[in-house]
Predict the structure.
Amino acid sequence: MFIAFEGGEGAGKSTQETLLADHLAACGHEVVRTREPGGTPAGEAIRAIVLSPEYEGLDDRAEALLFAASRGEHVARVIRPALERGAVVVCDRYIDSSVAYQGAGRNLGMDAVRELSLWATNALLPDLTIVLDIDPEIGLSRLHSRDRLEGQPLDYHRRVRQAFLDLAAAEPARYVVIDATQDTSVMADQVRAAVDARLDAR
Ligand code: TYD
């Protein structure tokens, strides 16, 4: 099973990923926890380029291509092999981050950016995507420092949030949206319930 976590900045994704990974491991699953951009040495090198303030002004299309390149490498070397041996993959961000940040945030077009990532990954989509939803004003205020993307104007982050909500609304069977202003333990219960329901159905 392939589970992706998505959402804006400061939504608490990593805490929820840890709690879910611990729960799945306690249930006897092999859990592969990974992240984008990154997940392989080449992917981490790409991550350093796209997030570094050193490359302020990086062309929007170049940025979209770099995220897609990192994703292609990640799927080929980490995610597909893990799924093939029966592991549960918990991934911090996936295709929808590109659709939301580059497609909607940078106005490159959600469909075009989605197509790019589908090509890069041979069309691998998550079985379940968990969107941790938060008002960007609240999310950004939770951060201690900001990288190149987090430093974008509020409007950009609002478009990103709306894109995640639209993607989830279009395919309710593959998504769950969780209010990220709730307590950590309440969110964790909701995440676990959504995942366990899907695992039980298999
Ligand atoms: P990261 O430090 O991992 O942020 P977070 O903890 O919020 O996940 O940085 C990832 C940043 O890259 C984040 O601002 C979202 C952005 N991003 C994209 O713009 N497009 C993408 O395809 C991905 C995977 C991430």
In short: Residues 2-201 form a domain with the Rossmann fold fold (CATH 3.40.50.300).
